[in-house]
Amino acid sequence: MGLKSLLSLPFARQIVKKNSKWKKNAVKVQNRLLFSLISQAKNTKFGKDHNFSEISNYSDWKKNIPVRDYEDLKIYVQEIIDGKKDVLWPGRPLYFCKTSGTTSGTKYIPISKESMPHHITAARDAILNYIAETKNTSIVNGKMIFLQGSPELSKTGDILTGRLSGIVAHHTPSYLKKNQLPSYKTNCLENWEDKVDAILEETLEENMSLISGIPPWVQMYFEKLQNKTGKLIKDIFPKFDLFIYGGVNYEPYRQTFENLIGKKVAGIELYPASEGFIAYQDSQTEKGMLLCVNHGIFYEFIPSEGFFNKNPTRISLADVEIGVNYVIILNTDAGLWGYNIGDTIKFVSIDPYRIVVTGRIKHFTSAFGEHVIAEEVEKSLQETIAKIPAQVNEFHVAPQVNPESGLPYHQWLIEFEKEPENMADFSELIDNTLQKHNAYYKDLISGGILKPLLITIITKNGFRDYMKSIGKLGGQNKVPRLANDRKIADKLTAF
Which pTM does this prediction carry? Predict the structure, then answer.
């Protein structure tokens, strides 16, 4: 046992004990945080525009700070780009995190000197929780790989700008750098396929113990390793014990991963966002991810059912309920206020507060009023596969409103690793299961408004080829599970 391994368990236990204080007092911590954020930002332009100095309770807060998306905050961000200080948060941001938007084009999300450490601490604590719980300290002795964006930064105005994973790479703790792969040179490669090839060469002969990344891109790495060696991942990396992931639901990939690896590997799910580190899996036995209530973010929640109403219900952590689908709203120590990141979540526990990500408020299928969400289609697929074996690499659901003949329907575009023996039975069971999870969809089927779903098979690597065709192969990019139009579906059918 190396020194690092020897020291990691007592350190992990110390951090877990320390974090238990905010874990057990989440509502109080959140209330204190709100007024700390107000106090720090009251003299900013945004704080003056929204009467921060007059806010004395949460009701006042809701009256003065509307829910916004990036488009609504863009005018303030532009002032920062133009060189002004004390706009959204005191001083100037350390970085802009560059992300691709929809209506807004490129988005520039500020990261402050106060918010930056949370991205590092939360990821660290996720690993330490795993070590404290499992007592598996061997992972710290092996090599670690983080499949991430390029750490090369540009400037927007005078502010360093890059992808979140690339920015975070500059703040990797020194105790990890010795063990971390790939090299800086390889990490800077922009072409994702070239990058994965280079990572493969750098890691093939290494003692890999921890691998982290978004599942579809890690899968690509594993497949290239297998194609080159003819071996299972467990035989290439015998010490590989821990997979850290985020960005998409892992369940549709689980069977494919276990087949590629050749054994079950422990996993830790993370919920990082450009706007802040929201949650991480703190237990191998409990469902969901621990909400980071002490990491510079005051959270608000809006039931997704009423989100598009004129005056939707808006609550703080104190009033959330288990099982309700909420749109999550952020207020951060980087100066994002009433900010809708577009994600929907559910609480699976309130002691402590643990969540699962259920989808995107803008990613749904409701061309006929059914409002089918990602959680429902993913559950339907998983439950079907449990009864009719199949392996699915990727899938996308879109409405077919104007078919050449017959009733409209939901089109499921699926890339199989292994097709079911009977596709008709498979399709029927998914449809019946989706009806069980969504009463509106059931009514449309039984009322003869829709016919049951149809599956279109996408060829192997079709989703990757599609992402490559639009210049979004690799990194944090992924194909949405659902859409309310056919922009993606019509292009995918070409692959």
Answer: 0.81
